[in-house]
Design a protein that fits this description.
Blueprint lengths: L22 E7 L3 H12 L8 E7 L6 H12 L5 E5 L6 H13 L7 E5 L3 E3 L3 H11 L3 E9 L5 E2 L2 E2 L4 H9 L2 H6 L14 E2 L2 E2 L3 E5 H7 L11 H11 L3 E12 L16 H39 L14 H15 L12
Parallel strand pairs: 1-2, 1-4, 2-3, 6-12
Antiparallel strand pairs: 4-11, 5-12, 6-7, 6-11, 8-10, 9-12
Length: about 350
Amino acid sequence: MRLNLKPDLHFFEHVQDPVTPKIWITIVNYRTAKLAIDCLRSIAEQIAETSNLRAIVIDNASGDRSVEELTAFVEGEGWQTWVSVVSLDRNGGFAFGNNVGIVKSLRSPENVDYIMLLNPDTLVQDGAIRALLEFMESHEAVGIAGSHLQNAVGRPESSAHNAPSPLGELVAGARLGALDGVLQRYVVTPPIRRDAHPCDWVSGASLIVRRKVFDDVGLLDEGYFLYFEEVDFCRRAKKAGWEIWFVPESRIVHFEGSSTGIRKIAQRRPGYWYDSRRRYFVKHFGVLGLVAADILWVIGRSSLLLRRALRLGSGGAAQDPKWFTLDLVWGDLRALLTGAIWRIGREPRP
């Protein structure tokens, strides 16, 4: 990816506090201008306590009036000194859009200490950014930290996770309490905890990254159009020796699904979700690992359906999206038969 990254000088008009760490917030917008504006308003309320803050909104070729609305809003508020809007000519995906903002911040003439990735469908609560900064400043071994997410009515969302794995697919497919207990380490989304703790990955809706992490592991993998990009990035960071933590004091309201359009569990998932899952498993477990993950998922899900048929338990009230197992298995089989699966991970890094 070649980018023309000349710094925007209007970013640097403030006289900066040399003590406070500098943080850049990257927000990727795709046809959610009104949500992004509300998100910026919530960030603005934090500036009094986080003076060395910049925000960059990347519009991923929305094709609507998002850029005009965002630009007019920023200019109307007089926020050009700390907010910039960048329009892209194509939608390269969530990782692609974030990488544009990340690279602009890393190449800026300012000394950027941290980069925060924030979804446009979020509202930053009082002290949330400061809590992340204070945690990172006092925990030098931590490379990435994630916020406590809650929905519009205040209920907590899962944001600290274990890494997906073939055995994790068996656990997820079976939805059997006893199996969850035996293979607890492989449960991707464990029960929500209220204390700060390490984990394998945190939700990309709100996370902060230490600058040196990008030096060590590079940018987000643009082979993921949407989903699994933060899972992959956190896994690479852990492999490089960095810790990943969940910080409950940093509270973010997340209107989940508003920025992706995926809101109803019963609807059919888009093809890029399966492409991203396939990419993750092949990159980190190999082709045989992906095959094992699919087989274990089918075994687990078959056991769940059998238990339901025999009225031995429902395995929970949640339902899969329409045609989920068929789309998953057929998509991976087709990638195997066409040879596309062997090209995964061989693309040049951004």
